[in-house]
Amino acid sequence: MKPPPSITLRPFHEAETVFFAGMASDERVTRFIGDGQPWDEQTIQDRIRAALQQDPLDMVGTSRWFLATEAKQSVGVVVSTRKEEGIEIGYWVSPDHWGRGIAGAMLDGALSTIPEVYKTKELLARVDPANTVSAKLLTRRGFQLATQQEGLDHYTLA
């Protein structure tokens, strides 16, 4: 069995805008995010600006993004946002790195990093029911399906 990729998460910086914009404008990546459509330039810039804002971590809506790298190469982005019920996490993997276990390694990194950043273990994720790979990754790491709302499965970390 092949060992999982060695992934490092570090805070997202403005310099990674081009990398993220490439994923956000790629229909393969966005098909399970939001309305399933690639993001336009304005949406990309608005989301990045909000992510870089560094609002107080206890404020609902605050987000922190993390760049995932493997051997110093950008492979994905982990997104975390404070919600009323906990910290919502999500992960985007560059299609160039699909099928190698990158998402699982990113999620493992998120599970050790994000609770420390926000000082809480109350983690949740929203997943399109058609995204069975993501649902499987979450359940293998202790998340449980809690509810289904607005066409999405809501998972919480048990």
UniProtKB/TrEMBL annotation:
<feature type="domain" description="N-acetyltransferase">
    <location>
        <begin position="7"/>
        <end position="158"/>
    </location>
</feature>
<protein>
    <submittedName>
        <fullName>GNAT family protein</fullName>
    </submittedName>
</protein>
<dbReference type="InterPro" id="IPR000182">
    <property type="entry name" value="GNAT_dom"/>
</dbReference>
<dbReference type="InterPro" id="IPR051531">
    <property type="entry name" value="N-acetyltransferase"/>
</dbReference>
<dbReference type="InterPro" id="IPR016181">
    <property type="entry name" value="Acyl_CoA_acyltransferase"/>
</dbReference>
<dbReference type="Pfam" id="PF13302">
    <property type="entry name" value="Acetyltransf_3"/>
</dbReference>
